[in-house]
Design goal:
four-stranded mixed beta sheet; 25% strand; 2 domains; 24% helix; 2,3-Dihydroxybiphenyl 1,2-Dioxygenase, domain 1
Length: 143
């Protein structure tokens, strides 16, 4: 999965915590991802100044790897794809307990840089979710 962004290091830090992922190490024989990019011919002026990791991996190997691709422009429109962090436990868990789990996760993410955009609370249909934005404004939901 690839996510366009202005500051890969900032989003790697945020999403590593949000997803409980870890930064993916640079390929063997390279001290940093920047070293690797230079070795495969990416011009230095496209790489910025940092040597930070720009990729995440699931430590269990089950989830997708994520690359935070630097782009020059800021986010300007609503996402066409977003991530749902499923922490509530599904509909077999009573709604009050799911709501408490979701709210606890939101409380964990906000100090990391997330911003609450809104709450979707439809008790009649057993649905509760909170929509947030990551530090660059990419929308995602906690359900």
């Amino acid at each position: 999965m690839t996510i366009d962004c202005r500051d890969p290091g900032r989003l790697v830090g945020f999403w590593a915590e949000a997803l409980r992922y870890r930064p993916q190490p640079a390929p063997a024989g390279h001290a940093t991802w920047r070293d690797w990019y230079l070795s495969v011919g990416v011009p230095a002026d496209e790489l910025g100044d940092g040597d930070c990791a720009d990729r995440l991996e699931d430590p269990t190997g089950a989830g997708p790897r994520i690359w935070f691709q630097p782009v020059p422009e800021p986010k300007s429109v609503k996402n066409r794809l977003h991530i749902d962090l499923k922490v509530g436990g599904g509909r077999e868990v009573p709604l009050p307990e799911r709501r408490a789990r979701v709210d606890a996760e939101v409380a964990r993410l906000v100090p990391l840089g997330a911003r609450v955009l809104g709450t979707m609370d439809d008790s009649a249909n057993g649905h509760y979710a909170v929509q947030l934005a990551d530090p660059e404004g990419n929308e995602f939901c906690v359900v």
